Amino acid sequence: MKKTVSLLLVLILAIGIFATGCTSNGNDSTGANSPAPNGGEQNTGNNGSESKEPIVIGALTSLSGALQDYGEQNQKGFMLGLEYLTDGTMEVAGRPIKVIWEDTTNVPDVARERAIKLLDVDKVDILVGAASSSDAAAVLDIAEEFKTVYVIEPAAADFLTGESWNPYIFRTGRNSAQDAAAMADVIINSKPGAKVATLAPDSSFGTSMVQPIVNELIERGGELVHQEFPPTDTTDFSPYIMRIREAKPDYLYVIWAGANNPWGQLMEYDLESYGINITTGAPEIAALKSMTPMIGMQGFCVYHHTLPQNNPMNEWLKEKHMEEYNEVPDLFTPGGMAAASAIITALEKTDGSTDADTLIEAMEGMEYESPTGTRYFRTEDHQSIQPLYEVILMEVEGVDYPVPEFVREIPAEDIAPPINAPGR
Where does the UniProt annotation place the signal sequence (predicted)? Predict the structure, then answer.
């Protein structure tokens, strides 16, 4: 697809989306200062900059479908991040900021079509998103065709800043390899030379999440002794747990998502009495509610609102989020704020210029603040290098889920992922 994609083609694509029941939110709201994130257009500049052209940001995320909750968290964080970074003016370098939201519906073809619409019709200056790695992947070559910087958040698949990367791609979120490195760091820090088994669904998600932990364990002197891949719809985990118990690992690393989770059955088999420690990454609050049997578990976490230590941005986020939405920020909210921080920091460095080459030069190696601390874009692949947390799940009075309690911050450089970008 060439950059000369015509308006006619975009209209045809839009009609096709409508015909299949997918409704775009991109132009549903056209008034200035539109309400808090619900999709549509948000022209957020004040009255002091009418004479300057707005900076238009095209935002892609899942505002419906299986990842709607993730997308909405990220959207809220992004808009709050713009407010925080601009001191409420919603301007940078004297230019008002306009955000146009598009719902990818968690379908890659839709994500691609709406990215084209944002770039070819709305003429956005920067792209940001998406919740799904498949959605983000569908946009990579479009960003390169249109020579537009694309800030990925929170999609985590390694290949986005690896084999499929191009120079217009920057990722503020962590990738799967960083998660794996954090998990391996927690395990080996507790037991050098640990023997590890894994339990993950028999799906592309499961296998893609397991391989990085295997690599990181070997790198740190650990050993993989057993793997189990139950079907995604499994409800009886007994045979898988029995085989894991027979393998006698020091740790069982569990990767699972969905209502049919293995936590209860894992506790029934009392693996700890066999010297097997269960571990995983602490997920979003909704998923934590299913992990009550795992109170006392040691693991890692990307974010929980209680974890950042002495971070003014996180303190503001917690207070403002409670004020706006009557709830604490969740796992994907700070990522949206980090994406906004990276974009505003870059635009301040370029004095408001959105020229892609100028932005790329400003963003390579650039440090920016986030609710979890200082991050920076690695020059070689534009992957954000950032710290994560070692935690223990604890019961807290008045809270209806196990709370990840801070143990230590895992230094960013200790979990920096391999560089796999082409030509780098």
Answer: 1-19
Residue 4, pLDDT > 50, answer no
Amino acid at 287: A
Q: Strand order in 298-301's β-sheet?
A: 281-282, 298-301, 388-394, 403-410
Tell me: do 82 and 217 sit in the same domain. Answer: no
Same-domain check for residues 199 and 230: yes
> Would 400 be classed as within a structural domain?
yes
pLDDT digits (tens, 9 = 90+) for 205-258: 788 788 899 999 999 999 999 999 999 899 999 999 999 999 999 999 999 876
Percent of the chain's residues with pLDDT above 70 = 88
Place of tokens 């956005």: 124
